Amino acid sequence: MSRERFVVHLPVLATDLPAAKRFARAITRALGFLPDVDRGETTVSAEDAQFVRHRVFCDSLLDGGRRCGRAADHDGPCVPPERP
């Protein structure tokens, strides 16, 4: 059986964009044990500007096919994501 990709929109309250990104990182890390969650594609947008998305994770491709698990626009080298 083939499967399709979907985006689940989960509105949250935060004081600003950096706080919303921290919250999104916490949610995706907490759900990291689920193989169907693509945390590297996590984005945040303001409720009234959902077409303007801000990437939460770097998600650059690393050796071995894994992706960087650090925050988007991080300083320093990319590193693999933490294992739950």
Explain what the structure shows:
This protein is an alpha+beta fold and 84 residues long. It is 17% helix and 13% strand. It contains one helix and two strands, in the order H-E-E. It has a two-stranded antiparallel ribbon. The longest helix is centred in the first third of the chain and has 14 residues, at 17-30.
Task: List strands and helices in order, with pairings.
Blueprint: H1 17-30, E1 43-46, E2 49-55
Antiparallel strand pairs: 1-2
Element-by-element helix/strand order: HEE
Which overall shape is indicated by the principal axes computed on the Cα atoms? globular
Number of discrete helical segments: 1
Q: Low-confidence runs (pLDDT<50, min 5 residues)?
A: none
Largest sheet: 2 strands, antiparallel
Helical fraction:
10-25%
How far apart are the termini? 28 Å
The spatial strand order of the largest sheet comes to: 1-2
Number of strands: 2
